[in-house]
Amino acid sequence: MELLDYLPELLLAGAIAGFFAGLLGIGGGVVTIPALFTVFADVGVPIEWRMHAAIGTSLAIIVATNLSSVIAHHRKASVDLNIVKSWWVFIIVGAVGGSVFAKGLKTEELIYFFAALLVVLALKMLVPLDKIKFGAALPAGVFSKASPLAIGFFSSLMGIGGGSFSVPYLTLYQVPIHRAVGTASFVGLLISISGGLGFMLEGLNVDGLPQAMAGFIHIESMIVVSIAAVLLAPVGAKAAHALPKPLLSIIFGLFLIIAATRMLAAV
User: Fold this and answer.
1) Annotated domain spans of the chain
2) What is the model's pTM?
């Protein structure tokens, strides 16, 4: 199948992902994975590896979008480097572990994992939970290692940049929202690079994948979606200051529920 046949759908997915990433700080994977999963049926990715390819390609896409986000947040001094220094090893180990674990799962099982994530994120968008706090400082001891390990593992397993987990986690311990989002962008970059490499390596010896793929990463889709997402992210960031966020959160929450329903219908 030629790239032009599915170019509009990929551009639309990238544009929506970039817009909402800039608007609400939501990782683009929750938008791009359902679109990639649909497109890969036409591209010729076998059903048993289709979700793996969607997740791997999503992580590769997030590298580009997160890199621009990290630069922007670092210029505003909103990246907490102390948190990054204490987390980075466990984030990378968790992300690589998630990619290795994913290969042993069936497409149906990955869809169930991802759909569950979409529902949880939808509830977060629809129900205000901003006033809930767990403590005045991040946990010490074993939780200081287990938390980033789990964030890296589940973010990689589900093909997202980590902001969906790390931003709520940090704000629960009273890290200011702007610093939480900025730090999460750096964490997401680590997850997308290490998790993306893991999915690429895990898919290198898999039979039946199209020639345009590097392991579980579809190169053409990665390039198209990345360009659209990077171009629309600044638009979303500007819109965040002009549009009512509660209404937009409700709309996006309903969108996530619809996306989860569509993916479960494909099982």
Assistant:
1) 3-265
2) 0.85
